[in-house]
Amino acid sequence: RANEGSWPSRELGSGVFSYFAIMAIRAGYKTAEDIFNFAAPRTTTYVASMVKKPQHPVFYDGYPGDIPVVE
């Protein structure tokens, strides 16, 4: 959301959303939508519990259908 920050994590070694997005790719998720749907709720939960701040990632690409990220 536009009024929220994007949080890094020293513990995770990257930005929180980036960490979970990479985890999704390693788990076999292949489209931007699936990666986002994996990473977004984990990001919100992690940031709420560890940083005590809100972070609700938003995804809109205007593209009808899934966007392949990984083959």
Describe this structure in words.
This protein is mainly alpha-helical and 71 residues long. It is built from 2 helices and 2 strands. The chain has helices at 16-26, 32-50, and strands at residues 8-9, 14-15. Strands 1-2 form a two-stranded antiparallel sheet. The longest helix is centred in the middle third of the chain and has 19 residues, at 32-50. The radius of gyration is 12 Å and the shape is globular. 15% of the residues are buried.
Instruction: Give the mean pLDDT.
Output: 91
Distance between the termini: 29 Å
Q: What is the C-alpha radius of gyration, as a whole number of Å?
A: 12 Å
Report the β-strand fraction as a percent range: 5-15%
Give the number of DSSP strands.
2
As laid out across the biggest beta sheet, the strand order is: 1-2
Number of helices: 2
Unreliable runs: none
Give the ordered list of helices and strands: EEHH
Helix and strand topology:
Blueprint: E1 8-9, E2 14-15, H1 16-26, H2 32-50
Antiparallel strand pairs: 1-2
Task: Supply the key terms.
71 residues; mainly alpha; two-stranded antiparallel sheet; globular; single chain; 42% helix
In short:
The protein is mainly alpha-helical. Helix content is 42%, strand content 6%. A hairpin with a 4-residue loop joins strand 1 (8-9) and strand 2 (14-15).
